[in-house]
Amino acid sequence: MISAEPSLPLADYKNIVVISDTHFGCQKALCRPHPIRLDNGGTYSPSRIQRKLWAQWCEFWDERVPQATREEPYVIVHNGDVCDGRHHGSISQITQNLHDQANIAREVLAPRIEGHPYFQIRGTEAHSGPSAENEEALAESLGAIPNDEGQYARYDLWKRIGRRLVHFTHHIGITGSQAYASTAVHKELIESFVEAARCRLQAPSVIVRSHRHHYIETRISTELGDAIACVTPAWQLDTGFVWKTVAGRSVLPQTGGIVVREAHGELFTRSITWNLARSRAI
Hints:
Elements (H helix, E strand, L loop, with lengths): L14 E5 L16 E2 L5 E2 L3 H22 L5 E4 L19 H16 L4 E4 L3 H4 L4 H9 L11 E2 L1 E6 L2 E6 L13 H16 L7 E4 L6 E7 L2 E7 L14 H5 L3 E10 L2 E10 L7
Parallel strand pairs: 1-4, 4-5, 5-6, 8-9, 9-11
Antiparallel strand pairs: 1-12, 2-3, 7-8, 10-11, 12-13
């Protein structure tokens, strides 16, 4: 068990650091910079681009997160698709051995999770397995906080910050046009308010989604301040599947994460992102 017992009541944490779509085990995703031992005794050495991803990962945790949280305590939420899995006939994995992929994930995540309450959201079944069985096993080994049913990887999370609620789940609609990139995100925010009113429940002040691999944010004004809907960036670069889409062909890959923070009575999000440079013109 890696994650620590909360040092504060969970509702007292004012900062949530959110990462997602790490896709550990993919050759276009994060791995530690040293050779990785595989099941049959061989090793894998990270590529040049993976070493660049690793430098961004270290900057994210060692410099950008402390700045964004003002070095205050924070909760960590992984918003789904921890490992790449075996999916869609892909051969872009470092290894298709799921135990090896989980080991790669643990070696990278464990040092960052240690000392912080950790929540795991279930991602896409193509990556996480049927009913997210692979993410469930990994989340338990990392000490993720379970839900009321005892699931260490959960489909969603309602996290309270002071008087406000933040809602996390992995999926969000995808579009092939940047002109409509905000449509599904804003719609999801409005739908959450309609459902809260219908059931006489508190509406979320922030909803966090992932799956798209690119950051976007939309907001509306409410009596408790702005209500925000955002989509997280990822830690996987473009694979062959992405190049089939208009957005994949025209939009640069983006890496990073976000921080949800309450300060001076205001709840807001801060994105921490990097865009990969275009291929070199010759």
